[in-house]
Structure formats: C-alpha cells, structure tokens
Amino acid sequence: MAKFPYSRVLQFNFEDALASEVSKIKGSDIVALAKRIHANTIVVFARDAWGRAYFNSSTTRKHSKLKGRDFLRELVEEAKKHGIHVIAMIGHTTNPELYKKHPDWAQRRADGSVITMDTDPLEVEGPMRWPLMCLNSPFLDVVAREAEEVLEYGVDGVFLDSFRYMPDAERACFCDYCVEKYRRENGVELPKTANWESEAYRRSFLWRYMVNVNAIKKIREVAQAKRSEAILVYNSHPLGWKGRASRIVELARNYIDVVFAECSEADYQPPGFIAEMVKLSLAVSGGKPIWASRNSFHACLTSTVTTPVAIRQGLREAFVAGGYPLYLVFSTAFANEPRVNRGVAQVYRELEKLEEYMEDTEPLRYAAVLFSNRSRDWGGKDRPDHVTDSFRGFYYALTWRSLPITYICDTDLDEAKHEGF
What is the pTM of this model? Predict the structure, then answer.
C-alpha cells in the first residue's frame, strides 16, 4: 500500500428536507470534529440530494438558511489552516429543484413515468420526493459546472455519488434524450422490453453501462482541466442494484482515482461485510485506493449513534482489508448527539501510527473467488442477485474457515492477473 494522503476520512452531510441544523453549524465546527477524531480528509456536500447548494453557486440555489454565509468556503479555509484535505461532493442524481425547472431532464420509464430514488412500499401512494435526473440530458452539464465551481474554492477533488442510471428493464430510462441518442449512435430504436436472447437488447444493456462510464470520464476531464491535480472519487455502492454497480467501476476504472465503497448495509449484512466490499472494490477497480464507510448511526437511524464497538470494528475492517476508513456523520446527529465522536478517535489514532507499516505492502495471494460481472449479467439475466449471492457464498464459506480469501474479476482473467495464487 503506497502512501496515500486521504487515508482517514470524515464525511459530513446535511441530510434532512428541512435542513434544520444548517444555521447552527459552521464550517469550522466540522474541521474541529475532524481534528478531534484525527481525520486528515473531510468529504462534504457542496450540493445536497434536495438540490440545494452550500456555497455561492451560479447554477444552483444556495440554501436559504445560510443567508449571507458560504459554508463550503468556511470549511475549506479552516481546513487549510490545519493541513486537512477537503473533497466536495457534487452531482447527486436526485435534484428536486432542478426537476421542477426541467422535468424533461428526468429519467423516465417506457410508459413516461418518472424514475425516483423513493423507497416507499409499492402499495403506498405518496408525493414524489427524489426524481432521478438523466445523464443523457443537460443535467450532466450542470454537474460539470458544479465541479468547476467547487474546484475554484481550492478543494482537493470532487466526489460523485452513484448516478443510478441502471440497465435493468424496471430501472431503464426512455426519456427523449436517451431514445434520440441511442437511435443516433446505433441506427436502431432503443429496445423497450427485456429479451435476453436478443442481441439488440444485450447491446442496449451494455450501452446503458457505458452512459455511466462516459459521464464519469467527462466529469474527470472537466475537473482536471480546471485543476490538474484534482482527484475524482466515485461512490460505487459495490452491491447496489444486485451487484450491477460493480460493473460500472470495472468499466470506468481508468477514470476514477478513488473508489468509495459505501457500506451502509453493514448493519444487516454478515460480519466482515466492510472488508468484503473493500476486497471486491479493489478487484473491480484494478487496485485503486478504496474508501469504505462505517456510518455513525445504525441502519437508517441517522439522528442517533450506534455502539462504539460497531464503529471501531467497522473502521478497522476497512483498514485490515487494504482500504481506508470513512466515517459518515449526518447533521442531525452532529448537532444533537454528543457521542458522535465516540470510538472513532481511538481507531484513527491507531491508524495514524500503523499506516507507515502498510506502505508498499501487498496482500497475500492465497485464494480468490471470481466475482464475474459478465456471468451475473448474462447468466443471471433477470435474477442477477442469485449469481451475486453465489459468489458471496463461496467468499464467506472460505472466510469462516479462516482462509485468506479475496476477489478477482473478469478483467483479471483477461489480463492473466489471476496467476500467483
């Protein structure tokens, strides 16, 4: 593990619709927390999932509760005084404010209904909260401008959340932008029904993956044109969408500098899940630096704090597996829960001392499970979760026999990197 400057991460988000704590929290408060827990990097929302900016943006309305303040500037200026890096999170694919202005930029199913990030039960009808914007629409130009704007603040890089542009029939976008672009690039219509025996459908499936890849490539090029040393971090959600998300990282690995393995499922996955996601992300990314998250809260209880043991062991898991820990704190817990830094400082102090011993080391190549994105996509068809779970079953069976196990991916086989185990 070569020396890596962004090795102990604090992520801070304003998460609630009311943004109830915005007026109370200053950028210097977040830097103070980073110092207390020995973090050397802060990730912060520059624009949240509701479509509101936390800096003076020319493209996005600044949150009204900030009034004359510029939260991002406060944070960056204070962080620089203490040698702490700042990565700005941009481009969240949900953007209700932008949707109100440009409803035609949203992802839409073949029947014209809007694809959302809402998680209500199917039988519950309620107002749409989080419409997903389409990467083939001018939305991507807005994201590019967000990247340019935050880099003017002197941040070290930009952080893209998962684009949530998926190939599966129930999630596939058929907005006018997608239909027209596919017709222009391929000379045929975009297939509207899933037919796994049809080459035309399989081609459209791959095309949708490449929409993600090309979007990541574009934002990286924009960022580095603005500031050559800027890094691009991509939130892969390694097991998201039944494992499909890992295919995007495998295809886009040349355009990603750091992979964020969001492990928000850790509280209802097997013990060792965070380590597993680090190993999976290392495989599909070709060995890029991996951030792996341990949330301050349990499951989805964002305003509370989970046990110190869960926090400490989750962060240690990330490091032991060859990644770098990221501790996620939401604003409601930050403002109201004094235990929010409990357990973290101990681990980050440990890692501060241990990191140098991990420089230039390589993991033991004893045994590996092939996490084949191709097998999952083409063999799993409409039930990719069955194939994904089979890979994971082998991984955990060997892990629980105390064998040093890791993952490899299709590209490793293509490039003969499976040798040496």
Answer: 0.96
